[in-house]
Amino acid sequence: MDDVKPKFFRLRLSVHFVAMLLMFNQLGLYQTPWYFTLIALIFCTGVLNAYNFMDGINGITGGYSLVVMGALWYINTYQVAFVDSDLIYFILMSLLVFNFFNFRTKARCFAGDVGAISIAFVIVFMLCRLILATKDVSYILLLGLYGVDSILAIIHRILLKENIFKPHRKHLFQIMANELKIPHVVVSSIYMVLQTLIVFGLIRTQYHYEYAAVIIILLSGIYVVFMKKFFRLHQCTNE
Q: How far, in Å, are 138, 188, 189 from residue 215 at the CA level?
């Protein structure tokens, strides 16, 4: 959820920074130029918070993470080995169990802040390992759909002159679930399918950066068109 109380935000962000710095030590990232480490710190901390913010409906965190981990498994197995495969298998099995209880109309368990940030941390660790092994930053597209939704939601709120640290329900998936009344599992499935298609294209093409640019522009365009058409419903419900 996007419930970040200002008085706890600095402490929470500090904990995230410390966690990232410890992870960077494990990755050997301090051997790279300092500005690369700074960029990685901002990016990775942003991913942790974005993952937590996107955890708003049944199935979306577990389902989306299953797609991302499946992509990491394929890349690790058939393209470039960047992590012990047993770790990926362990996480995949955990996600399958979690989805069994969460990916349903009436969920029996939830990820919560700790669960969402924990799986995000694991994914960020593996993504960093992959990028360091391949020297290919375009692999951040494995989180492309979440990234575009999160970043554009922040920009949208800034344009609306809102406090971006206060709770809100302006993510694209929230408009779909709350205003358009699309069932949670359907919305989560849409996100899973779209991210799967994005990953498939990334894995198949040799032109990673060009492909990433096209996908980001396309997703951004879809987001803008969707909001222009349906955001008025959110405004009406909050008047």
A: 11, 20, 19
Q: Which percentage of the chain shows pLDDT scores above 90?
A: 60
Question: Can you read off the two tokens belonging to residue 179?
Answer: 């205003």
* Tokens of residue 141, six digits: 């597209």
Q: Which residues contact 142 (CB under 8 A, 6 or more apart)?
A: 68, 71, 72, 127, 199, 202
Beta carbons within 8 Å of 16's beta carbon, 6+ residues apart: 45, 48, 49, 117
Across 24-33, 36-45, 132-141, the highest mean pLDDT is recorded for: 132-141
pLDDT tens across 176-196, in order?
A: 999 999 999 999 999 999 999
> What is the mean predicted confidence (pLDDT) over 48-64?
90
Q: Note the helical H segments in 103-161.
A: 112-134, 144-159
pLDDT of residue 3: 46
Distance (Å, whole) CA 179 – CA 182: 8
CA distance 4 to 166: 6
| Among the listed residues 162, 167, 195, 168, the one whose alpha carbon sits nearest the alpha carbon of residue 60 | 195
Can you tell me the distance from the alpha carbon of 45 to that of 113, in angstroms, rounded to the nearest whole number?
Answer: 14
Tokens 């396309």 belong to residue: 218
